[in-house]
Write a structure and sequence with these properties.
It is a single chain. With 125 residues, this protein is of the alpha+beta class. It has 4 helices and 4 strands. A 4-stranded antiparallel β-sheet has the order 1-2-3-4, with helices on one face.
């Protein structure tokens, strides 16, 4: 089995206060302060799915799809972008739902907060 990942790094403005940090006396991040983030999108396929060119799907085609999701993630503060509470968990699921129709055999979407060193992976497999 092959596993392929496409990744993008970007800055994101979540816009949520941190009650845990506040409770522990740790300085909270300003709602307008960006996090360094990374989106990793993975898909899988079997040996017998390789085509005559030696690949399952042209990843150049998938780049624009992933870039479109990243454009939505970076367009504004997440509290303005999403109608739901934009936790990394819920946004990971949202990104999976956006990509599942365009990426055959999507296995997971991982959204990492690089500033805090926390990764959230969503999959339905």
């Amino acid at each position: 089995m092959f596993r392929i990942e496409i990744s993008r790094k970007f800055a994101v403005w979540q816009g949520l206060p941190s009650p845990v940090r506040r409770a522990h006396g740790v300085p909270t991040r300003s709602p307008g302060e960006p996090f360094a983030a990374e989106l990793r999108v993975g898909f899988t396929f079997e040996d017998d799915q390789l085509g005559d060119r030696g690949w399952f799907i042209d990843t150049d085609e998938l780049d624009s799809v992933v870039d479109g999701v990243v454009a939505e993630l970076t367009a504004d503060t997440w509290t303005e972008t999403f109608s739901f509470r934009p936790t990394f968990e819920l946004v990971s699921r949202w990104a999976y739902e956006q990509l599942t129709t365009s990426i055959p055999q999507l296995s997971h979407v991982e959204l990492t907060n690089l500033s805090l060193g926390v990764a959230t992976r969503y999959s339905r497999i």
